[in-house]
Write a structure and sequence with these properties.
This protein is of the alpha+beta class. It has helices spanning 2-19, 49-82, 127-157, 161-176, 179-187, 192-217, 237-246, 318-341; strands at residues 34-42, 107-113, 118-126, 220-230, 233-234, 251-253, 262-278, 281-296, 302-314. Strands 4, 5, 6, 7, 8 and 9 form a 6-stranded mixed beta sheet that branches. Strands 1-3-2 form a 3-stranded antiparallel beta sheet. The longest helix is centred in the N-terminal third of the chain and has 34 residues, at 49-82.
Length: 343
């Protein structure tokens, strides 16, 4: 009988001790709907109330950050296993958290009893509100991606491929910004099915944008006007050879200014330089001087303008020497065009 009474007394003391660990009005924060950490201590060093409670808060925040760190690491492994291999965010790089992490959506409260010097501090996150916050972040970015794709299609239809490309290139990196939000959703206990549904939409958006960019990259339209003169004779081969060099890069050629992504103008002419004899063999040296300008089709902005001269030599005369120079000129002009239309 005495043992039973003693057990009841000890149990009662235990419950009283537990009840005194934090104010009763904080009970709601200790439910499954919250992530929380509570700290309590007695102010034995007679610090000011503000200093003492702030120290407790710092400890509560740090411990809550550690909880989040472990949850995020578990979530990262879960997410990594759940995604197919075609498109995957770099989850492992996002799992590094420091213990002094300034957590978003963290609320704090403190209590202090001057008579006893007992202080309490709690740092907590409402999981439902946090899940809504991070889901909304992802939805906003997905909507922005959809709008960017729709705008890009309109630009393409209107013949402004460069504007379409710019629109898509600006939105693509933002999809990577969703990675932290996905981590938080996992850490906050969001059902796996909801996370996977958002991930699927995110990955589909990324793949669709990359496909559009690939089509734009390998479907560059060029209006090329090329005038080449070799000692009074038109040299059409210069234009044809440049087109042949650029075609494997996905370039196509148009005569319609409205359909051209780029407008390129080249003017070239040959000039005699000199004749020299070596070991009884005559060599004729000629130069081909060429000017080139490159403009954006949609804005008429001139992105490049320059002149170059290329030397050629031949034993059969200046005409052949100039044609030899044109072979090297084709290579140089093609490289200039590539660098400026694919920066």
């Amino acid at each position: 009988m005495k043992k039973g009474l003693l057990l009841l007394i000890l149990t009662g003391i235990s419950f009283i001790g537990m009840a005194q660990q934090y104010p009763s009005e904080w009970n709601q924060y200790t439910s499954d709907g919250y992530l929380y950490n509570i700290q309590s201590d007695r102010n034995t060093l007679n610090r000011s109330e503000a200093v003492f409670t702030n120290q407790l808060l710092d400890l509560a925040r740090t411990n809550l950050a550690q909880q989040i760190k472990m949850r995020v690491e578990d979530s990262a492994r879960m997410l990594k296993e759940s995604i197919d291999g075609r498109s995957r965010m770099a989850y492992t790089s996002e799992t590094r958290f420091s213990t002094d992490l300034v957590l978003q959506l963290v609320s704090t409260e403190t209590r202090y009893e001057p008579a006893t010097g007992q202080g309490y501090a709690i740092a907590y996150i409402d999981k439902q509100k946090a899940r809504q916050f991070y889901s909304s972040q992802i939805e906003i970015l997905l909507n922005q991606a959809e709008n960017a794709q729709a705008l890009a299609r309109n630009y393409i239809d209107a013949g402004f491929k460069n504007r379409a490309r710019t629109e898509l290139e600006q939105i693509l990196p933002k999809l990577d910004d969703t990675a932290p939000a996905f981590f938080w959703l996992g850490a906050l206990g969001t059902p796996q099915s909801e996370i996977e549904a958002l991930l699927t939409r995110r990955n589909q958006a990324e793949q669709s944008i990359k496909a559009q960019l690939a089509e734009l990259t390998y479907g560059t339209s060029i209006l090329l006007t090329c005038s080449a003169d070799i000692f009074g004779k038109a040299y059409a081969a210069l234009q044809n050879e440049i087109k042949g060099r650029l075609a494997p890069d996905g370039c196509n050629f148009t005569n319609d200014t409205a359909q051209a992504d780029w407008i390129i103008r080249i003017n070239a002419s040959a000039r005699e330089y000199n004749q020299m004899t070596m070991h009884g063999q005559s060599f004729y040296i000629a130069y081909v001087d060429a000017s080139i300008s490159i403009e954006k089709g949609d804005t008429s902005q001139r992105v490049y303008e320059n002149s170059i001269s290329v030397k050629g030599a031949h034993t059969l005369g200046y005409d052949h020497a100039a044609r030899t120079a044109c072979k090297d000129l084709v290579s140089q002009l093609s490289n200039i065009i590539r660098k400026n239309i694919n920066p």
